[in-house]
Amino acid sequence: MSLGKSKKVLILSYYWPPSGGSGVQRWMYFAKYLKQFGWEPIVITVDEKKAAYPSLDKSLLEEVKTIRVIKTTTREPLKLYSRLISGSANAGIPQGEVNTSSVFKKIAAYIRGNFFIPDARKGWVPFAIKAAKHIIVEEKVQHLITTGPPHSCHLAGLALKKEFPLNWWVDFRDPWTTVFYNQQMFRSKRSASKDQALELAVLQAASGVITTVGGELVQRLQKKVPQQRIEVLPNGFDAELLATVQAEKKNDAFHLVYTGLLTQNQAYREIISALKQVKKQRPIQFSLAGNISSSIITEIQQALPEIEVTYHGYLEHAAAVGLMKRADLLLNFIFEGAQTEMISGKLLEYFATGVPVLCLGNPNSAAGEFIAQGSCARIFLPNQQEEIVAFLSECYKQQDTPFNAFSNLQDWSRESISQQLISKVLTLD
């Protein structure tokens, strides 16, 4: 049954430009292309002066300059948490892992995991609800999207669905209760049960659920809500950006590149071991960019004294794509515990460059199946050291970087996936 002809869609997203990182890009690009396809996206987010963003990328503001955005205040403890464990308002905001290297940090993780359910950003919920109610009434909005993490965002959707006849879809960029880092926060059974109850209430009340990958994550969700409608809308790459960014190699060195978040929860040490075994006949450069601790960078530099290791810090999106394009081999490490539930937008951008890709993770996963389609891309388990060395050596011997072809790559563009969003989620029979 049609919900009307309104082409307005309200998007509740904690992450929004000038926030940096991969979490912001999914709905930033959806909003961009919805606008191009004749829809009117209206975004409610957090004022960046109040938000706990681990990184900023002001260049992303250009992508959404025509999008209507309402910013609210929030109440949350993450900036305080960050200062307590790192001395900085942003440096200690958790990403991809929970630091439990000291007794104090273990206590902080316990507090975060048991006193802030579903997450430490839930203080934004009442402000998001208040702003959304005003927009829904004034603009006669019928379509609502909430995207998480933070999954507390969905609690705002749950409250709004109870009050208004909305076509409300819940977007899981990452899993909720089963996300791998929950196990690092010493959650009690009572806390875990409370979180599961919140997730189930959201899943049951929503009009539908969107995930970034199929497979195991969809199966888990269907087990919880068998009758619920679930659509897979993967992350993608922006073809406009990839076509715009030009980059040429400056020398004959073999150039490895890693971009993104890198933590102790990823198998980067296996690459260090493999690089030590490659017979070096020409210089090797290893470039890293993103949110990476100084201790990991120092570890890599000290372990590879014969290799030029350069850390570029956190780069704006276009600069990161330019670095990818200058590579001879792109590296990717899937988080332990998240092997079957994620295909990052970064991996899509890797493939869009045409540069060969080496990934360490589970070949029998959604990411593994995706990588296997590349003509010069491989994914290995971290303990497959012999195979890793062989592929590294094969790429190293190539004087000209081979093109990593991928059939039907255009189907993974942000534009194409936005069309699927319209046909599957915003236009109902």
Structure notes:
The chain has 429 residues and is of the alpha/beta class. The protein folds into two domains: 8-236 and 413-426, 3-Layer(aba) Sandwich (Rossmann fold); 239-409, Rossmann fold. It contains 15 helices and 13 strands. It has helices at residues 22-36, 78-86, 103-115, 125-139, 153-163, 189-205, 216-224, 239-244, 268-277, 294-303, 317-325, 345-353, 366-371, 385-397, 414-426; strands at residues 8-12, 40-46, 68-72, 143-148, 167-172, 208-211, 230-232, 254-259, 284-289, 308-311, 329-333, 357-360, 377-380. The strands form two sheets. The chain has a seven-stranded parallel beta sheet, with helices on both faces. A six-stranded parallel beta sheet has the order 10-9-8-11-12-13, with helices on both faces. α7 (216-224) links the parallel β6 (208-211) and β7 (230-232). α4 (125-139) packs across α5 (153-163). The radius of gyration is 22 Å and the shape is globular. The model has no long low-confidence stretch (mean pLDDT 89).
